[in-house]
Amino acid sequence: MSASSTGQPPADLGLENSRRPEDRASTPRGLMDLLGVAAVLLDAEGRIVLWSPQAEALYGYSAEQALGQFAAQLLVHEDNWDWVIKTFAEVMETGQPWAGTFPIRCADGSTRMVELRNMRLLNDHGDFYALGLGADSPTLRELEKNVALSTRLVSQSPIGVAILDTDLRYVTVNPALERMHGLAEKHHLGRRYREVMKSSEFKAAEAAMRQVLETGIPLVEESTVVGRTPSDPGRTHAWSISVYRLEDARGQVLGVAEWVVDVTERYESALAATETRRRLALIAAGSIRIGTTLEVDQTARELADVTVPDFADVVSVDVLDSVLDEHRPRSFTGPELFRALAVKAAYPTDAERAADPPGELAAYGADRLATQCVRTGRPILVSHAEGSDLRRMARDDHAATLLARAGVHSYLAVPLTARGSTLGFLGLTRARDPRPFDEDDLAIATELASRTGMCIDNARTHQSVRSAAETLQRSLLPDLPTDLPGLQVAARYRPAQAAYEIGGDWYDVLPLQNARTALVVGDVMGSGIDAAATMGRLRTATAAYADLDLEPAQVLQHLDAITGRLEQYIATCLYAVYDPHRGECRIASAGHLPPVLVRGGRRPVLLDLPTGAPLGVGGVPFESTAIELAPYDQLVLYTDGLVETRDYPIDERLDTLLHLLEELGSLEDTCDRLLHRLRHPGAPDDVALLIACARPLGPDDPGQAGR
pTM of the prediction? Predict the structure, then answer.
């Protein structure tokens, strides 16, 4: 029973397809079951002698209805009988099979297009039979289409696809995956996943596949593997991997399907963006954290803190010794002499020992990279350091050995420059960090070194000026008299801290006629050498007027006139004269903080004096006030640097001063206690402190401090 050897029945046989009967209760086991292939056996005369259950499902006739019937009469419309009988006769006569699509008349009267295969059979008695195999044509076409689409989708997809069995052996791979791996399909098939993907980075992917095999839960783009393959061994690639479990129609696990997408460009872009953010953060940190003080050593340590460990494994900051010591000449032909300011390592390493210890001097020969860096004023980048590079990086062969032992593989030397001058260099090394320094790193290091160089130069200049001002200031302060009639004194001067300039605070103790003593504290407003010089002029003038035996108010009046001519400088001052014969102290104030009177058995008090105007304002009279000063009473004079602060109100600080003066002790101990308890280590102002204690006159004068 057939249509034609070409597979094309008469054109008028294309009738409307009908649906198949309901699926069988049994579970399909393969393609034959999915297609429901029906088998029908005919004898030589065309009668049905065998009828399969699938034939009943496909055509709708039971075995009882079909067996013994002529197939053509049962299954073919009358219009096609002649053609079918003729084709059947040709198959039986020639033995040539026929295949094609043919309309079958079903039991319910409908017509179904069936894909048929007819062939002649011969039994052991020499009798001929005809076997007809049939499947629903629409179902077959749909399956063929799906298979074709699946095959093309896999073979033409830019996504790498692999099928692996339950032992994770490759069953098939598509061309895209062949290209990704750099291996042909034949080098995949039958081999385990890790036999092909040998790099350790793929161990996690293998574990993920086994997890999917066990649980059936797919892994969809949740795993990104970074590594290298034979196709491109010189470049690191990134792949996004998805894994699905494969099962047959009965739910039996067949293996896994792996989908691989090359996301290298996305991975590299993300790395570049992360690196850019890291570098910007490093520069931002440098701008905030470097140069917080005007201390050379502290600035160098701040640079080291910024660069380690985020930028380098080990950092060293070295300055030319001639920069710190202007009296030491610099050699431009022999070795360069450096003084190390800071060294820091991200972890214990021999590379740190190879650097110069902070504070020590080290000579670097003309062939060393540090010397070349400071002499040319240009940075030096060694991306991949070798043996000869390590020798030139180190100060000597022993240090080079330490660098090699530490695994140093990359190096940067960047000059510290400011205002056209080279001050030293910044040395950076990487060992554990596998990244070699590159041009972008060089740009960052140059930016950090430039800022540091400027800060170091500012600090160096400031320290030089500050040192000169402090030297001048101390040279102008007096040596305290050791034997004053009826009076014992102690004094302290503390300059402002390094971040600020020296001020114009001073104290003085002046012996006068008739056993009297003048006590002076003052504060020139301003800072630097000019303020110190003005202070010196005022102190000299004060001593001159004190010898004239003037009232304290008159002395301040003359000082006011002098200050008014000193280029608009103003100053506060407290001038007191103690007469031990009368037990009296006469005091006048020019805008100064009130002194403290400490009497035995009483709480210390601030003296209520007419404040007066600062010296240099002019036109404001001063007043002298007399107070009784009995033996062992103390008078505490001080400048505002002792009690003024930005963090607390002045009244609160003065109360603290009074409280501290309640404690008993020698004058020297009291001076130290006040400075320790009241003065902050980073105080922005200098301090002058003078304490005078009255004592009895006479041959039995104990000469002891305190009470």
Answer: 0.49
